[in-house]
Amino acid sequence: MERADKGYMNEKLNLRSFYLRLLKKLWLVPLTGIICALLFLGVYTLVTVTFGPARSYQTTSQFYIKFAYDENAKSQVDSYNAYTWNSLMSTDEVLDVIMKGLEAAGYGDMTGSQVVSDITAEIPSDVRVLLLTVKDNDRDRAQAVTDAAIKALKSYGETNDAFDSIKLLNSEEATLVTYTDRSAVAAVFGLIVGLVGSVMALMLIDAIDDAVYVPEECESRYDLPVLGVLFKGEDRNTTADEIFKNDLIATCKKYTEGASGLLFVSVDSVRNEKHSEEDLESLKKALGNKCPEAISDMTAISTPGKVLDNYRKIATSGGVIMAVPYGKKCKSMADRTTSQLRKHGCRIVGVLLTRADRSFMKKYYRIK
């Protein structure tokens, strides 16, 4: 239980550091939103235009049906509904007349199944009013099917005993079927998904980030004194530099006093052995003429295990200063390094936070 309590996932989240880092990446939010908006718009265009259905043309015709009345049979009005009329359009009595009309109009190559699929007959409300809709990919063909269907229905009304007549009330010319353009909706939806998704992703990435950014995080995680902070880049002689430099000088003097044979190791030197040497040089440069003798004589080595002889060096040394790079995801290697040092009886003098971001530190500690 004690070991589990010290795990990274049980560490208290440094909210100030967390939000400052999140603000630095905030520019990604609108960028991701714009990219997602364009992506959604592109997908919508591909689906509805490039790979969407072919253009279609539609005509609408309205008929008035006058049912015949017989004293014995009464009216047959109840026998005809929307389903009946749709079925009726495919019967020989109606379809044969339509096919003849199409042949006369120069569309004899159309099959009966094509014609039936183009036609929809329905009764919106009043059983005496029939609405005929014809939809086809060709404007002229749609109009030809409509004209032939009108003649067929009129003829059916004259020849069938159930009707006195089927009269055409009105018929519209074939027009292009237009679909609602939802490009703006797709773009806005993509923008919202991008904005929300990017914010959640940034928060999740930062929440599981195991890197250290401020000295207090080093002390909390490794339970070791932090000797100070070394900034990346050239010395700019800012107020922050003076504050951290004085702290570095005082702390290094305190923890290395009377020590000899010290070693210096950067936890990410397993990737590049020069990191330890470069960080040690930065430390000596930062301390300047106030550099303690123990640090002046210090030797840089790579992490134990990189070179076999390093185990002998740490076992016979007077202690090790461990450097943890700012913002680098190297917690596992830092844990391994401290474990190896303690296993071989090597005293860890303290921890240095190296290659830190000067502007971040100034904002975090509110230093002008």
Count of DSSP strands: 12
The profile of the biggest β sheet is: 5 strands, antiparallel
* Radius of gyration over C-alpha positions, nearest whole angstrom: 42 Å
Report how far the terminal alpha carbons are from each other. 43 Å
What percent of the residues sit in helical stretches (DSSP H or I)? 40-55%
Q: State which percent range the strand residues make up.
A: 15-25%
Tell me the overall shape: rod-shaped
What oligomeric state do the depicted chains represent? single chain
Order of helices and strands: HHHEEEHHHEEHEEHHEHEHHEHEHEH
State the low-pLDDT regions, or none: 1-6
Number of helical segments with 4 or more residues: 15
**SSE-based structural type:** alpha/beta
Overall pLDDT confidence: 86
Question: What descriptive keywords fit this protein?
Answer:
368 residues; alpha/beta; 5-stranded antiparallel beta sheet; 12 strands; 49% helix
Structure, explained:
With 368 residues, the protein is of the alpha/beta class. The protein has helices spanning 2-5, 15-24, 28-50, 82-88, 92-104, 112-118, 139-159, 183-207, 215-222, 239-256, 274-287, 293-296, 309-316, 331-343, 358-364, and strands at 57-67, 69-70, 74-75, 119-122, 129-136, 163-171, 175-176, 226-231, 262-266, 299-301, 319-325, 348-356. Strands 1, 4, 5, 6 and 7 form a five-stranded antiparallel sheet that branches. A five-stranded parallel sheet has the order 8-12-11-9-10, with helices on both faces. A two-stranded antiparallel ribbon has the order 2-3. β4 (119-122) and β5 (129-136) form a beta hairpin. The relative contact order is 0.12.
